[in-house]
Amino acid sequence: MYNTLIRTLALSETPHRSIHPFLQMHRHNALLPDSFTFAFVLTGLANCRNLRAGLQLHSQALHHCFCTHVFVGTILISMYGECCDSCSVRKVFEEMPGPNVVTWNAVITAYFKCGDVCGAQGVFGRMPIRNLTSWNVMLASYAKAGELKLARRVYSEMTLKDGVSWSTMIVGFAHHGYFDEAFGFFWELLGEGIMPNEVSLNGVWSACAQAGAFEFRKILHGFMKKAGFLHIILVNNALIDTYSKCGNVAMARLVFENVPMARNIKTWTSMIAGLAIHSGLVDQGCAYFSKMKNMYGIEPVIEHYGCMVDLACSIHGNIELAELVKTRLAEMDPNNSGEKPNEVTKEAQSKLREIMMRLRAKVGYALQVGNVLHDIEEEGKEDSVSKHSEKLAAAFGIVKLPKGRVLKIVKNLRVCGDCHTYMKLISKVYEVEIIVRDRIRFHSFNDGIENGIRKAKKGIGSK
Q: What 8-state DSSP symbol labels residue 456?
């Protein structure tokens, strides 16, 4: 009974509570934990990244002689990986008498989660036996880390590939802006006679959205329909999102209205966000927002209120609505209401001040405060715009990245006009290529020019 309860809590939205039944067991001397007990509690601690409790549980596992148990030891490694403790990952692994291939795979994943790419490479090179999962773990980890040349190398060395392998390459290359490569992997998958899964379809569909591949998008939509994928809600959400980003709102609405199953919160978000992109569709966006809440009983989340800001505030200067939305956001997330600056290192803040001064001196840069809707003085508006998160991220990247590396920034809202100008100028003055991924698209800045949607670089990883 205790194991079932612990496992349920470990996999729930409150995994930290999985420790409570374990402590109750500990108080009853007649109830001894087994290997499953420790594995389930460690899974819960991994899911909530509670390193302190994990260390204490590790001590308990030692006391009960379970640390050399392959199942418990493997979960311990995963827990330390989630908590970014690579030293403990290495220690547990080295003390295991007979790790199996699952354990080796867990160590590789843990090292990547800790940011130790070299450590993961070393473990992969020492593996006595590799299965397909081992190769896919390396593939996925390299792709997620942006090490696409290394991902390409691993992919070319694989003697056996499955749908996961192709999906990883499609999604990984599309996510980092290499759209032509993503399309190539998709065609290769079809050429092998393998039916794409919803992950690979969403990956290539995302590439269509970012690259503006209109003709390919039509072919892909027809393929999805013929293959029967339109009954999957995730596929419909991706279709709505992509048509919106490509400017075909009419098609996005057609897909939305013909979704064959119950729409989920992502479906509504994709549709409202799509309307938010296009400044002339305020009424329709507001209508969907109202229908979602009042007719279908789906409570709006922060993303929906962000879309409403885009719809009527930043574009149309509706300050009253902006203040209303701002108040609601503050209620939903008091720690992220836009009133407090992001916590970045003092080094990044210092570099940002240096960049601002240099841009003013060299190219006459002046902050653009027209989109600041708060009712504050001009000086306050300038202070607000100067501390936008993407500016701090760029400053931090210039400090930390070696010369010649591409600076990549991800933002979950639209990039403001001033930040566009800022990125263009620092790309020229500091001679750095910058890629910004906002809520809508990729922006590429190089030598003072914004190239808009970033196309794939030819021959990445090729000889």
A: P
Gyration radius of the chain over CA positions: 25
Where is 409: in which H helix or E strand? strand 407-410
Closest CA to 54 of 16, 96, 100: 16
* Paired residues of 443 in beta bridges: 436
CA dihedral 207, 212, 214, 220 (to 10 degrees): 10
Give the global pTM: 0.59
Task: Collapse the DSSP code of 449 into the 3-class scheme (helix H, G, I; strand E, B; otherwise coil) and give the result.
Answer: strand
460/59: higher pLDDT: 59
Per the DSSP assignment, residues forming a β-bridge with 408 are 435
Say if CB 6 and CB 22 are below 8 A apart: yes
Give the torsion sign (CA, 236, 240, 245, 249). Answer: positive
Q: What is the largest CA-CA distance in the chain?
A: 76
Terminal CA-to-CA distance of the chain, rounded, Å? 58
Q: Give the integer Cα–Cα distance in Å for 35 and 342.
A: 43
Domain residue extents for the chain: 161-258, 262-340, 346-450
pLDDT higher than threshold 80 for residue 356? yes
